[in-house]
Amino acid sequence: MHDDTYYMGLALELAQEAANIGEVPVGAVAVWDGEVVGTGMNRRETGKNALAHAELEAIDMACRALGGWRLHKCDLYVTLEPCPMCAGAIINARIRRLIFGASDPKAGCFGSVSDFAALPFNHKPEVIGGVRREECAAALTAFFQKLRKN
Q1: Are 101 and 8 in contact (CB under 8 A)?
Q2: What pLDDT is recorded for position 30?
Q3: 55/140 Cα distance (integer angstroms)
């Protein structure tokens, strides 16, 4: 069984893939009992779709792989703190644990702008922030610096 840093490394690889195609580098990995059952990366620009977030791709793939929407034994690794849309999906999918890397002071909903885990929803995932924070933040910083240069 791998640890949180290992799975965050897989999410970082997906974030790099996103950056390589001109997307904001965010990656997500869904893990059920030690097995990767879903992956995702940001594709809003290439897909021309506001819903094309890494978390939603990973949750969708996990639901399809497992044949159901209840991901109560699933851990979700994301390089960036989820936005309100993704936070809602995480709660609705009954994700067991959310592990994220960098905080998002502009849209993060697990401690930064808001804390969905503290609200009286019917499900509260365990939330662990800051796993490989520096690497996750550096990927975002490098992407935006390059974007500004071009």
Answers
A1: yes
A2: 98
A3: 16
CA distance linking residue 84 with residue 105, whole number of Å: 12
- Cα separation of the two ends of the chain: 42
pLDDT of residue 1: 66
Residues β-bridged to residue 69: none
Sheet holding 74-80, edge to edge: 35-41, 27-32, 74-80, 97-102, 126-129
Residue with tokens 């851990």: 75
Closest listed residue to residue 123, CA positions, set 82, 99, 88, 83: 88
Q: Catalytic residue among 13, 17, 45, 55, which?
A: 55
pLDDT digits (tens, 9 = 90+) for 14-40: 999 999 999 999 999 999 999 999 999
Is the pLDDT at 114 greater than 80, yes or no?
Answer: yes
Whether residue 126 lies in the annotated active site: no
30 neighbors 57 (Cβ within 8 angstroms): no
Helix (H, G, I), strand (E, B) or coil at 93: coil
pTM: 0.97
State how far the Cα of 84 lies from the Cα of 87, in Å rounded to an integer.
5
What's the CA gap between 124 and 121, in Å, rounded? 7
